[in-house]
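Q: Is it fine to ask for two folds in a single conversation?
A: Yes, each is treated on its own. Send the first.
Q: Here.
A: Result:
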Amino acid sequence: MTPRRLTLIRHPRPAVAPGVCYGRSDLPLAGDAAACAATLRPQLPAGGRVFTSPLRRCRELAQALHDTPVVDERLIEMDFGDWELRRWNELPRAQLDAWASAPLDFAPPGGEPVSAVLGRVRSFLAEYRNAGAIAIVTHAGVMKLFAAELLGLPQAQWLAMRFPYGEPFPIGF
């Protein structure tokens, strides 16, 4: 059997100041999506489908990579609610500590827990697990959960993962 391949791609750097919490906020890109796509294209499987989060920072790259990317709401980043577009160092320490102690279950005020994002990732995988080679342009949080599910990583390991902007992370499964 030919191994299936999923390539996760984190969106390019968004136009937001360092140290600001952003999840569902629909931010523009700081750079050129076409230049990023030109670098990525040779690293992707030929003829594969491209899926993308609906947020602009992902969608612009996906459109530069493929003529007809599939926009899928399940690939959107976590909703940080009241934390959105606030500096991390200005968020209430007690809330951050509560999130750190129970990352799957804690929801920022007005936001969603990581377990909701995990549910979306699982739903996507159930639908497309046998779809052949695909690329997904999405967000670091979503990428961590794809890696956790497909590679069977323990929580401490997937939480510690880092994904550079505009870089691919291929997974064979």
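Q: Second one now.
A: Result:
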Amino acid sequence: MFNENAVDYSPDAVANAPSAVRADFIVKTYTHLTGAVMAFASLLALMIQVVPAQTAEKIAVTAFSGWNWLLVLGAFMLVSTVAERWARSSTSVGMQYAGLSLFVVAEALLFFPMIYFAARYGGSSVIPTAGLMTLALFAGLTAIVFVTKEDFSFLRGILMLGGLVAIGLIVCSALFGFNLGTIFTVAMIGLMCGYILYHTSNVLHHYAPGQHVAASLALFASLATLFWYVLRLVMSRD
């Protein structure tokens, strides 16, 4: 999840810029988002191809085992914090791209165990189905924001609280060994839909014109997490 404090609520926000600047910012944001998604998918496909099945199996089993999963999530959160900070750099465009690239690589590494299990045991249709469902949800939520032009920044507190509760439940699940189940998965899908509404409305209203890399990272983070839980839901129904 993205650090909401990165959003610019000043008079210099893109909503107050000329229409040409706003349009350019939106195009750049979604172009970078598309590039991030393509790089993410390519990295996962490459890892599935080059990592031997036996090694991949060991990595997947080890990653999802109790405390190990907490360590994996902790490392990901640390790396993502660094990546987000780099992507928000106001002095170095290179640092912004380094942050986005680092985040995409970190997401691919985090996803690898789940994707391996889905590809190995879920059937050939599981990943494409989850991907299409995720893109459909994302497109629908994006359309809602762009058509209504609603500012969903009021969701910030609710989303932060929901995220903290989710993290607490994930930690408790890993520590005490209970399964969070389908209800939690559906709730997380709902939470990520809220984040997508929030971040998309920030693209229209609150980011500064030079923050398109940070904006694309925020959208990618929510989109990837949505895909994670949609994939879990599809796998549970397969």
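Q: Anything structural to flag on that second result?
A: Two points. The longest helix spans residues 19-50. Residues 16-237 form one domain.
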